[in-house]
């Protein structure tokens, strides 16, 4: 099982062995993610599983296997009009009917506010599979098999929906009613009081929601357009209901697109905001497939484990262009569907997304771009979704992770030039932390440890805030912040020593002081580490995963039995199938499930919820203290099954703390994918 570049049908022996049907023309020898009617015919199972394709700008297309738009974020064209932000839902869905041998069959499935599900196209879905990250549906329509694919053009806000008759006598006629809107991806919109302007064009239509709106086009490649115009009312987005949010929206049907698909032929719908999209779907699909193959080739993963291959193509979805383009504008989307680029997430994810995938030039571009945003020694926590807004700098750890990202880049590439260029930025970060900067961030002169925080602010990765209530304030000297501080000092000292800079000794001496103070202040009974010391209410001894970084980071603060004791303590209280709990289950504040309205969800976010990205650090720590790479790698194996659930072919943001650890949050999270890929490759390296 794996990716390849050959064509043709799967061998009969492979099909007899139960392997999925090979989808002709894909880059897969056999899809890692594929389902038959056991999933496709079960509405609940089909709604639980979501697909995602992206365009390298922050735009995307996404939905469920069954076809229902369960989220406000679902749509066939969600364009990034101000890359990587300004995500705007333009095409919310399609109503698709196929006529074959005198019968009509639905392909689409929709859910409405009164509970009606109509039509029920999922009943005709025989197979769903991922071609890398590109979704492929196969419908059984009498004696015919019709294949539908969806992909986006890289670097363009253009979505293709292609239909191919793979079995049966043609032609079949496909009647498509596009369902359009114009709204920010974070909001829902009613059809009351407005209507898009629709202009017929050759083989399609142009749609404009207003004078200030970006126009977009729907083009029937190999078909024709029949004008119309009517609102479809009261679509239900059930995931929004579950999240305690508004859950109804309306979509406008501007007419019908008619496609005729001959025997063994194909036709396509193109949705685009671009002035000159590629109107040849076959060529566009070839480019998308070749891009995936090129990603594997660049990563040296053409013959790698299927999980490595899948995560390699999944990683590409997060690396996007910011602003006007070019390498200087590269950044990382923290997660789909609702996150933009975050400083902390970018730096944690960067080694896995770029260095583990053979993309050091992207790593360098991202590091250079973020260097320009450093202010008062701080990296931005979040960037705005819309132009003209200012970044937010409420983070203590993003800058420290930045130093370690530069260190990881140098370790992987040996590129001294980038370090030379960024060394003033690195020294500026460390020196400003030493003197003190915003939000109470600064070194305690008495012990060299780093303190941070003030009431009303959230500065660490445990950053949930509900109104004025910071759920996990962690004011004082947090354990992972001081592990990062020690590592930043050690990395900087190494860079300076390599350049024979006498200041190296000063930073190395400070690192030694931090290490001694850390061991004296954080190490507690039963081998655990305090989560925070010197807080407003004293020391916080809660069992949290943050202590694992004292063992897993490149310059560990603990070794020998002290390190083993921490790993064992974390294992006893926090390890689950899909990562580490954010709080031990014996704590009175523990929440075992993540769900409900915003207040309930945010209250549980870092109070027991499992975070997949922490699985990487824990596996590294297990390997470091035990020297058993096989045991460490086995901790990651369950994620192979997770690739078939929630966000297909990728890794979710979070999971419930209680079994069965259901996936929650974003369906595709950058640091989840990155850390799994980075550590998997590290543990399987020769």
Quick structural summary:
The chain is an alpha+beta fold and 686 residues long.
What does this protein look like?
The structure is a single chain. 31% of the residues lie in helices and 27% in strands. It is α+β, with helices and mostly antiparallel strands. The protein is built from 19 helices and 35 strands. A hairpin with a 7-residue loop joins strand 33 and strand 34 (663-664). Mean pLDDT is 93; it is low at 1-22. Helix 16 runs parallel beside helix 19. The two termini are 21 Å apart.
Topology summary:
Layout: H1 12-16, E1 34-35, H2 37-40, H3 43-48, E2 50-54, E3 60-64, E4 75-82, E5 85-100, E6 103-106, E7 109-111, E8 117-120, E9 125-131, E10 134-141, E11 144-152, E12 158-167, E13 172-184, E14 197-201, E15 204-208, E16 216-221, E17 223-236, H4 238-242, E18 248-261, E19 266-272, H5 281-299, H6 306-315, E20 319-321, E21 330-332, E22 335-336, H7 343-353, H8 360-371, H9 398-413, H10 416-435, E23 442-443, E24 450-451, E25 465-466, E26 469-470, E27 477-478, H11 479-498, H12 503-522, E28 532-535, E29 538-540, H13 549-552, H14 560-574, E30 575-576, E31 579-581, H15 598-604, E32 610-611, H16 614-626, H17 629-634, H18 638-642, E33 654-655, E34 663-664, E35 668-669, H19 670-684
